[in-house]
Design brief:
This protein is an alpha/beta fold. The chain folds into two domains: about 20-115 and about 255-465, Zn peptidases (Aminopeptidase, 3-Layer(aba) Sandwich), CATH 3.40.630.10; about 120-240, Aminopeptidase i, Domain 2 (Roll), CATH 2.30.250.10. Helices cover about 30% and strands about 20% of the residues. The chain has helices at about 10-15, 20-25, 30-45, 50-65, 155, 205, 215-225, 260-275, 305-320, 325-335, 375-385, 410-415, 420-425, 450-465, and strands at about 65-70, 80-85, 95, 105-115, 120-125, 140-150, 160-170, 175-185, 210, 235-240, 245, 250-255, 280-285, 335-340, 345, 365-370, 400, 430-435, 435, 445. The strands form four sheets. Strands 1-2-3-13-4-14-18-16-17 form a nine-stranded mixed beta sheet, with helices on both faces. Strands 5-6-9-8-7-10 form a six-stranded antiparallel β-barrel. Helix 4 (about 50-65) runs parallel beside helix 8 (about 260-275) and helix 8 (about 260-275) packs across helix 14 (about 450-465). It is globular and about 75 Å long. The N and C termini lie far apart (about 70 Å). The relative contact order is 0.17.
């Protein structure tokens, strides 16, 4: 009988090794990546909601010499770098770096979103017990919520959360609000939901936030509200308090909000550092993508179209003539749009429900999605050429991928209301390219920092391309 060489211990040393190519070839740049990860973690600590992201990015842009302008202000500006904040809710923005060519020759735009799955407080959220005899069986005032953006209820049960947002006071001024709470959880001793489905809590009761107040009046006083109707002129969301952190050295960055605030961070970083673009370069950070982008702050709203009209009017003043409608459509044809959203990467629990061969993988760089929704092969070739290694520069780690859905679910994607994007309807070629993200729409989304860096670099080259 043959005796096998080695032992169990030696077998471990020759086991398969998980490789992260977007990290392993960094060399001297690894120290710079450590600094970048610190900035991303700081960003996520400070920013939980779209209006906070807009404020954060506006400060970054101002520090880089970008001028803040008003979308309805027709005053001319000599500057070539500027940004607009939406005048409705201040939860979306457009950052512009004008090119040497007029905008009518075409533009480059990356659209990322700054909202993420969370819980939204109802307009009359306060819940108390009506039966005095049951008072001591509850923990005080509870706040009822609505799931925002495709959450899975069990992920949120038992979570510590911060309720954050703002209210509009009697003087029509915005006043920010923040207070702690938690989503109640069943006692493990009496939870029989694993074998008795009838005992599973309905979302209505499962996602109530315990605020710690003894009565509704106490809650109103703490929020400086005069009446329960003051919730109606407020926007309040509950977000998890867990902090983002780097694990495995720099291999993985785990936390809440990668989809898509990290993608927004990458796109803003790219345009702030792009150099001498020929074509006008734009980053559009939108709101409400997770709930199909309704107006006015979502991509189906008028914000971007108003911006384009301003740019065309400015060009008309320069050329002292009216620009024809056909010239505008030629502008759209010569433009390019990247949807800078994360893409779902497979993780163990997801494998049976995904087309894992087509899906993007964490650690292999920026994911360029071939996409069944009508990708332009010329645009795909353009992005691949931008990422390729050349004598004058290093390559960008990237992967060509397709949809993560199994083919049995492709119809879900094909009829998504988010297809109604104004730019694509006008004929602007569009490609999805972004960061691979595992455990997407959970409170512990996972990316590789090397992929984020590669994504930002591809966006930057896209802005600088001819």
């Amino acid at each position: 009988m043959k005796i096998p060489d080695g032992s169990f211990e030696t077998l471990l040393t020759i086991d398969d090794t998980r490789v992260f190519p977007s990290l392993s070839n960094l060399g001297k740049d690894r120290a710079l990546l450590e600094q970048r990860v610190e900035k991303i973690i700081d960003f996520h600590d400070r920013v939980k909601l779209p209006f906070q992201a807009v404020e954060y990015f506006a400060n970054l842009a101002s520090e880089k010499g970008f001028e803040k302008r008003e979308i309805f202000d027709d005053k001319p500006s000599a500057g070539k770098k500027y940004f607009f904040v939406d005048p409705w809710q201040q939860s979306s923005m457009i950052i512009v770096r004008e090119g040497t060519k007029p905008i009518t020759d075409g533009f480059r735009v990356v659209n990322s979103h700054a909202d993420a799955p969370c819980l939204k407080l109802k307009q009359r959220p306060a819940r108390v017990e009506e039966m005095i005899s049951e008072t001591f069986n509850y923990l005080g005032v509870r706040l009822s919520t609505i799931p925002h953006g495709g959450i899975i209820v069990p992920y949120w049960i038992g979570r510590h959360v911060d309720v954050i947002g703002y209210t509009i006071d009697k003087n029509r001024k915005r006043r920010e609000i923040k207070f702690p709470g938690f989503v109640g959880v069943s006692s493990a001793h009496i939870d029989t939901s694993d074998w008795n489905p009838e005992r599973v809590l309905a979302p209505e009761k499962s996602l109530e936030i315990i605020a710690g107040d003894e009565n509704v009046l106490g809650l109103l006083n703490r929020l400086k509200f005069d009446h329960v109707d003051d919730f109606s002129n407020s926007q309040l969301w509950a977000v998890p308090v867990n902090k983002m952190r780097s694990i495995g050295g720099l291999n993985l960055l785990v936390g809440y909000g990668h989809d898509d605030r990290t993608g927004a961070f990458s796109s803003v970083d790219a345009i702030l550092n792009a150099k001498n673009p020929e074509r006008t370069s734009i980053v559009w950070v939108s709101d409400n993508e997770e709930i199909y982008e309704p107006p006015p702050a979502g991509t189906n709203g008028p914000f971007f179209e108003i911006f384009l009209e301003k740019m065309i009017e400015a060009q008309e003043r320069i050329e002292k003539r009216r620009i024809k409608e056909t010239e505008k459509y030629k502008m759209y044809k010569n433009s390019m749009s990247i949807v800078g959203d994360v893409t779902v990467a497979p993780y163990g629990h997801d494998l049976t429900a995904m087309d894992v061969k087509s899906a993007a993988k964490v650690g292999l760089g920026v994911a360029v999605d071939g996409n069944i929704k009508g990708n332009d092969p010329y645009f795909v070739r353009h992005l691949r050429d931008l990422a390729a290694t050349k004598k004058s520069r290093k390559g960008v780690f990237h992967q060509m991928c397709g949809q993560f859905y199994d083919q049995d679910y492709m119809h879900v994607w094909a009829v998504s209301p988010s297809d109604n994007k104004s730019l694509a309807k006008k004929g602007v070629p569009e490609i999805w390219a972004g960061i691979p993200c595992a455990s997407c729409h959970s409170t512990v989304e996972t990316i590789c920092p090397g992929d984020e860096r590669a994504t930002s670099e591809l966006y930057k080259r896209f802005f600088e391309s001819k």
